[in-house]
Write a structure and sequence with these properties.
CATH superfamily of the largest domain in chain A: Winged helix-like DNA-binding domain superfamily/Winged helix DNA-binding domain
Largest sheet of chain A: 3 strands, mixed
Largest interface: A-B, 37 and 37 residues
Oligomer: homodimer
Shape of chain A: globular
Chain lengths: 134, 134
DNA sequence: CTGGCTGCAAATCTTTTGCATCCTG
DNA sequence: CAGGATGCAAAAGATTTGCAGCCAG
């Protein structure tokens, strides 16, 4: 795919498969999710390649690592600034595209240089709500 | 300590040691930090007891589990609502005690019931700034 | 006394690493 | 054709679990 040439890294078939899986993906998958999905087309795919590719993409700023799920890292190919809402039961994550004004005065930052911020919203998704009722 | 009786769970010496370690602690320690600190007074302390106690405290709402550090869970005995600023280099976490208005319209939440939110600020702490310069 | 807690070790899960081989640029 | 990427397996960390014995209430 031409659109990936800009990335400036070797475009192996495995990486292309991961990029295709990411394309338009809003699921915030874990490394294992990616491994399982891409293994279907690449039976020899290894975790080393998944993590290696994620690391490469992360260094280029094409993927974000999410720490919102306590059990494992999740990855987000949508690099536009945005926030997340996570279901506390099933851990499903959806995007919140909205800007918030969350400035902090210097006396609160104890000499830190600020780089950015990310808001985690917590909630219960519709599916888990209905399960809870039954 | 009388103040802990309210917790309504067995006050073993090990748990008391963990509670004392937590008392006023602003370090946001990991399970391993807790284990190492409390092991000094309790050489037989085990990880099982640390995790067991953390789980019990968490269920009572006396400790928060932070997911902000990608490498491990961190724990916060300060249960007043507040936010965090993390150094992206050394992972030091400091508290941000300020309220922000971050309401989300219903059309963004896709049917989720909202429970709460938490803001992660990213930055570089003074110590890591000076190391970077040298 | 008794049920919950402790401590140890083994197991699990996620992520990382070493290294020989492969293949993109 | 060289250097980076792959795949496998082993290793490293973090967290969980099984279970026999212990002790706070």
């Amino acid at each position: 795919m031409e659109k990936y040439k800009q990335f400036g890294f070797k475009l192996t078939p495995q990486r292309l498969a991961i990029l295709n899986y990411f394309n338009g993906n809003k699921e915030h998958p874990s490394a294992d999710d990616i491994y399982r999905a891409v293994s279907k087309s690449f039976p020899t795919m290894s975790f080393a390649t998944v993590y290696n590719t994620l690391e490469a993409l992360r260094n280029k700023g094409n993927v974000l690592e999410l720490t919102i799920d306590p059990n494992k890292k999740r990855y987000d190919p949508n690099t536009m600034p945005h926030h997340h809402l996570i279901c506390v039961k099933c851990k499903r994550i959806i995007d919140i595209h909205k800007e918030f004004s969350v400035s902090v005065s210097e006396d609160m930052t104890q000499g830190f240089d600020l780089i950015g911020n990310h808001i985690e919203f917590y909630g219960v998704c519709p599916k888990c709500k209905s399960i809870a009722l039954s």
